[in-house]
Amino acid sequence: MLTMAEAIREAMCIAFDERPEVFLLGEDVGIYGGAFGVSADMYHRYGAERVLDTPIAELGIVGAAVGAALSGMRPIVEIQFSDFTAQAMDQIANQAAKIHFMLGGALHVPMVLRTPQGSGTGAAAQHSQNLEPWFASVPGLKVVVPSNPADAKGLLLSSIDDPNPVIFLEHKLLYKIPGRDPVPEGSTRIPLGVSKVVREGKDLTIVATGIMVNKAWEVCEKLSAEGISITLIDPRTISPLDMQPVFESVDKTGRLLVVQEGPAHAGFINEVIAQMAGSASFGSLIAPIKRLAGMNIPIPYAPQLEKAAVPQIEDIEIAAREIVKNWR
Amino acid sequence: MGHPLSSPAHARHALLYMWRIRKFEEAVEDLFGRGMMHGTMHLSIGQEASPTGMCMALTLQDQITSTHRGHGHCIAKGADLTRMIAELLGKEIGYCGGRGGSMHIADVETGNLGANGVVGGGIPIAAGAALASKMMKKGIASVSFFGDGAMNEGAFHEAANLAAIWKLPMILFCENNKYGMSSSTEKAFAIDNLADRGKGYGIPAVNVDGNDVVDVYEQAKIAVERAKSGEGPTLIIAETYRWKGHSRSDKNLYRTKEEIEEWRERDPIPKFTSKIIEAGLMTKKQCDAIAQEATDAIIAAVNESVKAKPADPAGLLDAVFKKASA
Amino acid sequence: MSFKYPVVMPKMSMTMETGELIIFHVKVGDHVKSGDVLFEVMTDKIDMEVDAPADGVIDSLLAEPGAVIEIGKPVLIMLTDTEVMAFDFGNEEVGAVQEEQIEQVEVKITPPAAAVILNESVKAVPKARSEAAKRGVDLRTIAATGPDKTITMHDVNNAQVDPAMAARQKANRALIAKGIEMSRGIAQASFSRTVNSDFDTATLIRAWAGVLRSRPDLAIHPHVGVALIIESKYGSALPVFKDPDHLAHEDLKALVASTSEAAKNGKVPLAMLTGATTTIFDVSRYSMNSSTPLLFPNQVTSLTVGYGTESEKNISLTIDLNFCDFYDGALLLDALVASITKH
Fold it and tell me: What number of CA atoms fall less than 13 Å from residue A88's CA on the CB side?
């Protein structure tokens, strides 16, 4: 079964083959095959004309991607760590996100910015961030967070198809592992803006993003054996966000637990809570909404500290049990 | 387009466009003063020769990116005056449907990829457009207009380097009006000659008199030929002067009256008008008529725009993303 | 005129404790007919006109417009010959009995001492709030077992009945019990027949009214009023359908349905609480074959409908022997069965 890196590469190659205007640019993506090996071999397969190694110049390369996108190409720009999108923020947030709107629809930016995010590799504070809210809060950007290889492939192909700028956030820890489900073969797509109900239950609804989907899955399996059945929802696209399955599920279960890796304060998952609190389904709640998220600290270096900084499977299990037990 | 002094037609074009820019900016100043325009305006009165000369060396398909002080670039590249004024007045028929304003006007048909409210924002974008031209073998060049202030932005550095290493068909056109808001180039640069920066990237650089449309054109033509023949980018430093303040909120506190007077004498329009007459291409009367023609065009544009329908908030949410075509 | 009937401040909502008297439409000495508007009252939720329950004369006005009056307390007294309420016991005692009934209906809502949450803002999960409101349960009376003293759904589901409702139920039971006691003193006999037919309540009411009307010699009232016992969470209600045989069948059907619905929620229009000349007890819908015959004073007859089989029902007629012979009773029952099976 394909790992997430392989699935992403497969999607890029399919896109390359289908559309001559698709190309990849970024630091070390060509000859080296990508810092995380995602574009391995693409340089040899497609050549320097379509796989461009760039100097270390995030602002310049994202800007060049924007300009190329305006002019008829469909660039995939890889930023080596999501933390470095900070260098490129003008081109991402002030240019790409706003061009279509500001210019009254005269131009659009069909660009995908792929970047690894997240903690757990001991890379410490400046190489481990989860910056979902940075992008999700900018109107004009679409933001995709795949949790497994099968989704990653389908979502990336849809992102490349999309005529708007898409930020595609890949978790470093997921690159080398296969998912639970096999990656479908061929040129198949998963639409953006559609949440996935990963499993259904009646006692609790869990909404989780990225790597937390897989941790939550383990908890669902374990608790299911004890008769606690849980609905697990993976938004997949965090902007635009599809809340419909969440409302429907909470109407049935009455309990909501949201889980994200990024720091709790002003994090993306708060959007799920905010929408729930203002919705008709609020009246279905038989328990307060529970949030599990990262600590409000930069990611520390030592492994035990790094682990303590973000929710782990045990934390999710404890929270799930508590909410079901205390709120009948 | 050919050299401004190569024929009456070319001379007329150059003079007309400079007047169009001048009259446009004066009209904007007037409308703004009357409270009819929202926000702020960045006027380029006195700098008309640079965009006019540069754009005469380009075709319609060649692309430009512009700055917050971009009305001149827009007009020189062929924008519709009514749609420009309408945008500044927040009307539906404006270039951006009232959503962008002065600093974000783009005109795809004339190759204008948009003015930019972020200093230096358009430079990497122009590099990207040039990259696309190369990859798609379009054979077009892209020009990034920017001011002296932008040369100290990281974006300039990164884009210039990319253009140089990839030999992009690009022209980096700096309108050095000696001031980035209030800091003069003397204070913002440790070098005297901004063109020296080109060496740092391996990009040939030239100084031109930004107020002499002929000088600008001649250097622009060379740069365009270099670009289109695959030789890569050129850095043009056009010395000019901004005779009104940075924007409407300026109070001209940082220049002396003498400085301002000196440069009024270098006004590009009378300068070129003299050259036309000297060369016997047109008479003074014909030149005056051109000024009047420009005035009439602006007045017509303003009249039409003022009557137009204001932009409607109803469509706002739908305007963020482009819809995928089936 | 025989009776002094106090017209009281009605309770118009679950939480209403007082109402404001807005205006009188009558003065002392006015002759009124049943249904005429006597006065208007208001609470923060509802405005209402209070009608005369019977024909009569205004005897005295007991309050001034603008006065705030507790529910159940009298607003005016009228003199009437007509029996009011479901029970008319035929003598002066009525006044006293009715006073008693009114006392029982008047209930203040005070939180019970135990397990009460003393602060005004009560914490409850969203669904518990809406559920409690729907059931008319005051959150302040529910013991919270959730974290941070928050009321959970579990708590709401196990909550005790609202004391106001309990009091109302108690009052209602007392009323019925009193009536039954009095009924024991009446010389009566019962007999029954099986009816092999499907009939709905409206049909039964209509048919019975028609049968009674055909025997004016057996009646003690000029009109026919059929009371129907309906069980609600507040106890038994006895809405009276006056002259139901004069209504079109569909209209009577609709009236029966809407009145039943209202009665189940404890809301019977005042006008339908009086004028019964006979009562129907339908225990078939509880799968009972029969039940103790109940005959109310001042009603010559009553019917009980019991469950026989899927296609059969038992109808039992009870007669007041002071006004009706065995033979006439048998004829009445015969006529009823014939009328029902004809449809």
Answer: 33
Name, in order, each residue with C-beta under 8 angstroms of A217's C-beta and a sequence gap of 6 or more.
Answer: A180, A198, A199, A232
Q: Looking at A6, A27, A127, A271, which residue is catalytic?
A: A127
Query: In chain B, positions 101-130, which contact chain A (CB-CB < 8 Å)?
Result: 104-108, 113-114, 116-118, 120-121, 123-130
Integer Cα distance of C135 and A1 in angstroms: 56
Mean pLDDT, residues B78-86 = 96
What chain B holds in terms of domains, given with CATH numbers, is: 8-61+118-305 (3.40.50.970)
Cα distances (Å, whole numbers) of residue B134 to A50, A256, B168, B170, C342: 12, 53, 7, 10, 97
Are residues C225 and C243 in contact, defined by beta-carbon separation less than 8 angstroms?
Answer: yes
Question: Which residue of the set A58, A170, A271, A306 is catalytic?
Answer: A58
Question: Catalytic annotation on A108?
Answer: no
Would you call C127 and A326 a contact, using CB atoms and an 8 Å cutoff? no
In the annotation, is A221 catalytic?
Answer: no
Fold classification of C3-82 is: OB fold (Dihydrolipoamide Acetyltransferase, E2P) (2.40.50)
| Distance, CA of A161 to CA of A142 (rounded, Å) | 12
Q: Are A8 and A156 in contact (CB under 8 A)?
A: yes
The CATH number given to C187-342 is: 3.30.559.10
Q: How confident is the model at residue B187 (pLDDT cuts 50, 70, 90)?
A: confident
Residue corresponding to tokens 């500001």:
A102
Q: C153: closest CA among C191, C124, C133, C183?
A: C124
**Alpha carbon distance C294, A206 (integer Å):** 59
* Residue A81 in domain: yes
ipTM (interface predicted TM): 0.87
The DSSP-derived string for A39-74 is: TTTHHHHH-TTTEEE--S-HHHHHHHHHHHHHTT-E
Range of the domain at A237: 196-326
d(CA B39, CA A165): 28
Interface of B with A in 159-178 (CB under 8 A): 159, 161-162, 165
Taking one residue from A and the other from C, the number of pairs with CB-CB distance under 8 angstroms is 31
Q: Are A75 and A65 in contact (CB under 8 A)?
A: yes
C-alpha distance from residue A43 to each of A23, A115, B51 (Å): 11, 19, 40
Largest Cα–Cα distance of chain C, in whole Å? 72
Among B218, B225, B179, CA closest to B47: B179
In this predicted structure, the answer to whether residue B162 has a pLDDT above a threshold of 90 is yes
Residue C96 has pLDDT above 80, yes or no: no
Contact A289, A254 (CB under 8 A): no
Residue bearing tokens 């799968």: C287
What is the chain C residue with the closest CA to A289?
C125
In single-letter form, the type of residue at position B315 comes to: G
Give C154 to chain A, closest Cα distance, Å: 6
State how far the Cα of B90 lies from the Cα of A226, in Å rounded to an integer: 63
- Nearest neighbour of B104 by CB, restricted to A67, A68, A102: A102
Please say if the pLDDT value at position A279 is more than 60.
yes
How many residues are recorded in chain B? 326
CB distance A288 to C125 below 8 Å: yes
Residues of B in Cβ contact (< 8 Å) with A58: 158
Q: Do C124 and C150 form a contact (C-beta atoms < 8 A)?
A: yes
Helix (H, G, I), strand (E, B) or coil at B73: helix
0.80 exceeded by pTM = no
Asked if B84 is an interface residue toward chain A (Cβ–Cβ < 8 A), one would say no
Chain B positions touching A49 (Cβ under 8 A) are 135
Tell me if there are at least 3 CB pairs under 8 Å linking chains A and B. Answer: yes
Residues B203 and A268: their CA atoms lie apart, in Å, by 44
Domain of residue A131, CATH code? 3.40.50.970
